[in-house]
Design goal:
The protein is an alpha+beta fold. Helices cover 33% and strands 23% of the residues. The strands form seven sheets. A seven-stranded mixed β-sheet has the order 10-11-8-19-16-17-18. It has a six-stranded mixed β-sheet with strand order 13-22-21-20-14-29. Helix 13 links the parallel strand 17 and strand 18.
């Protein structure tokens, strides 16, 4: 069905149709930014105080990606502010900060069933403030810049009137409106500027704007993080607060949890024992006492059915691969292209990945007059509010959410388990509670990166790739994630059907190369483990599979893997340039046998990246990564230093995916359950890193996840050139090498 205003009217009948059409018609939403005494707000994005401080509202969660700095830099650049006078504060929950680009990026366009305008309006009305999909700057640069240009123009109008000149001849520089030798501070103009008329069109990029564009300005969040004054959720202390520790039952259906409540309540400092559906908690004077209370409880879960094991997960993937899959994309006559000599086949496996963030999950909730006040490291504040309201049994409008900084959650902030637990316990105890998960609980009850098994088939003819078929078995993570994060109505009516497979699960599965006949199929695997978004999403698995298999095909053709790729990228010149740049910087020597060199490339979130890896084997035969060279094209860059930080962090994260960062399952428990046993890279394992940012005038693309997917295949391709080293076809590589 084609969605249109006419179809809505006709489909619903005259009366019902008109009502539906009116309900979907776009509305205007007033700014809800709170101005304190001495501050003047300009729209939903900035305030200017009498003290000269420019405060920028940031609607996105800061979890190390630097959005609190880059968005403020955009505003300061357009406004003509002095960077030393710029501050930030979290934006309130409001329709004005809804993030359609984030929804599109995270769910890979799975909501394109609805017309763009209708979908965007739905997201605004449901206040879907989502930090995901490397979308923050792509979504909010334009409105933030427009707000800054408006404030600059209004202050220039006031200054021009005072000086008796045309305001368009005024400039903004370092927090002053100037004209020749005359100048007035923003602080002197802001209040009067609020009564001026907004000019049309807005003078974007003029009047002194552009002084901070593309500059390495200092991060605003660094000083507080360095000196320890930055407050995270775990740091919150409220009057009469109790600390809560939890223990979950094994994965699978839980019928009951047997506990020794009396033993726990005997411990000094224990306040209460709380039972959830598949967890128990102890509230106490300190978290350490609460943990001792859990030990005294000696909880024992009574299961109701099978519990996950590593073998069961693998069998479920293999079973799904044998069943008929859904076609994600097809072009050309694939069956004919795969007939004849030159057939290449391989099976790849990707294990269950974990977030393994430094800070385990946490939430603070306080009962306030039949409502809740909530502090949480959330990337989806409206979703968190919904979960808290449901758990506490109160109306959503009775829940206030404070979105806290996140200590590198890698996507875990999309989940609301700890939020719901804190809300339920606070409602029960009628006092503030600080819920902290232990490291073990954080790993055992993660929203895991989905495992996958892929059967790859390709055919070469005269040294060229003429046919390609990939069959990928993996769970429909996108649908499950949307049901947890997105408004229920939008998921029900707006999410694309499964006829083309789960869009999120197939992210990055279609190779960017000009292959004449190509087919990609999704085989939905039903697993008994929860899956969610881990940095890079399904692109990590699918890029590893695709770029590794492309490399196998290139070597079977006897071709230089770099030149072979570039020859097939006529429709992707930006990706081809990334490959040639990385190879040039890295000193590519053809990737011949024994070279220890490998390449991989990927494009998503509006950006492109290529990684070249150099490797060798030490005296004990163990693989060592010596060097990683990354070339990226992420469009126009606001802050180059923050881009480099994100690419460097992504390279290390991708290295972790190859080395370890995965778990198995034994009788429903994820193993291992300690960071030290995940074989994560240490400082001594960190290779030499070179990052080259390719100059571009294209619109800004995402960078927070960009470098993660191609790292593992680049290293695997490099190791495959070493004498006697087997081709790595699994993540992590310990599973097969």
């Amino acid at each position: 069905m084609e969605w249109s205003r006419r179809n809505i009217l006709v489909g619903g009948g005259v009366g019902a149709g008109l009502l539906v059409a009116w309900g979907l018609w776009p509305r205007a939403y007033p700014p809800s930014l709170t101005a304190r005494p001495g501050e003047q707000a300009f729209g939903a994005w900035l305030k200017i105080g009498r003290d000269g401080i420019v405060t920028v509202a940031v609607p996105q969660a800061e979890h190390g990606q630097g959005i609190a700095t880059t968005l403020a830099q955009v505003v300061a650049d357009e406004l003509g502010a002095d960077w030393r006078t710029v501050a930030v504060e979290p934006a309130p929950i409001s329709p004005l900060y809804a993030n359609p680009i984030g929804v599109d990026s995270l769910f890979e366009g799975a909501f394109d069933r609805l017309p763009e305008g209708m979908r965007d309006e739905w997201l605004r009305r449901d206040r879907v403030m989502l930090t995901a999909g490397s979308s923050s700057l792509r979504m909010f640069e334009a409105p933030a810049r427009a707000a800054a240009a408006t404030a600059r123009a209004l202050m220039a109008q006031v200054a021009g009137r005072r000086w008796g000149i045309d305001w368009t001849s005024c400039k903004a520089r370092n927090g002053f409106i100037t004209h020749g030798d005359q100048r007035l501070r923003f602080a002197e103009l802001a209040e009067a500027a609020a009564n001026e008329t907004v000019p049309h069109p807005l003078p974007l990029g003029s009047g002194g704007a552009g002084a901070l564009a593309g500059k390495d300005v200092p991060r605003l969040d660094s000083p507080a993080k360095v000196d320890g004054s930055a407050n995270f959720t775990a740091d919150i202390r409220l009057p009469d607060m109790v600390h809560v520790a939890l223990r979950h039952a094994p994965l699978g259906r839980t019928a009951a949890i047997r506990i020794d409540r009396a033993a726990a309540m005997k411990l000094p400092g224990v306040v209460e024992v709380i039972a959830g559906g598949d967890w128990v908690a102890v509230a106490a004077a300190s978290w350490w006492i609460a943990q001792k209370g859990l030990d005294a409880l000696a909880p024992q879960a009574v299961g109701d059915g099978a519990v996950p094991t590593s073998q069961a997960v693998m069998q479920a993937l293999d079973t799904a691969l044998k069943e008929e899959g859904r076609t994600v994309l097809t072009r050309g006559d694939v069956a004919s292209a795969l007939e004849g000599q030159g057939l290449i086949e391989a099976v790849y496996r990707v294990g269950v990945g974990v977030h393994a963030a430094i800070a385990p999950r946490a939430a603070v909730a306080a009962w306030r007059d039949d409502g809740l006040e909530l502090w949480a490291p959330t990337q989806a504040p409206e979703s968190a509010r919904t979960a808290a309201a449901k758990a506490a049994g109160v109306a959503e409008e009775r829940v206030i959410v404070h979105a806290m900084p996140i200590g590198g959650g890698f996507g875990l902030g999309l989940e609301s388990d700890a939020v719901a637990q804190a809300a339920m316990i606070a409602a029960k105890l009628k006092r503030p509670v600080n819920v902290q998960w232990s490291r073990t609980e954080d790993l055992r009850r993660d929203a895991y990166r989905a495992p996958a098994t892929a059967r790859m088939t390709a055919r070469l003819s005269q040294g060229k790739l003429v046919g390609w078929r990939s069959r990928i078995a993996t769970p429909a993570t996108g649908k499950a994630l949307a049901e947890r994060v997105m408004p229920a109505g939008l998921v029900r009516w707006g999410m694309r059907g499964e006829g083309r497979g789960d869009a999120y699960a197939m992210g990055g599965a279609v190779p960017p190369y000009a292959i004449p006949a190509l087919a990609v199929h999704h085989h939905d695997a039903v697993l008994s483990i929860p899956t969610g978004h881990v940095r890079g999403g399904a692109h990590v698995a699918n890029c590893f599979i695709t770029e590794s298999f492309v490399d196998e095909c290139a070597r079977a053709a006897g071709a230089d893997p770099l030149a072979w790729r570039i020859a097939m990228l006529g429709q992707e010149p930006r990706l081809a340039r990334c490959l040639s740049t990385a190879a040039s910087l890295g000193g590519w020597e053809g990737g011949a046998a024994g070279s220890g060199q490998g390449v991989a490339a990927h494009g998503f979130r509006g950006s492109y990246v290529a990684v070249m890896a150099e490797t060798h084997r030490d005296e004990k035969g163990r693989p060592v990564v010596d060097r990683l060279v990354a070339a990226i094209d992420c469009g126009r860059v606001v802050n180059p230093d923050i881009v480099r930080q994100q690419i460097e962090g992504g390279l290390i994260f991708g290295l972790a995916a190859l080395r370890g960062g995965a778990v198995g399952f034994d009788r429903g428990w994820a193993t291992p359950s300690r960071l030290g046993a995940l074989n994560l890279p240490r400082l001594a394992d960190t290779p030499d890193i070179t990052v080259e940012i390719i100059s571009s005038d294209e619109a800004p693309g995402g960078v927070g996840e960009l470098a993660v997917p191609p790292v593992a295949p680049a290293i695997a391709n490099a190791l495959a050139t070493l004498p006697g080293f087997p081709r790595i076809r699994s993540l992590p590589m310990e599973l097969s090498a």
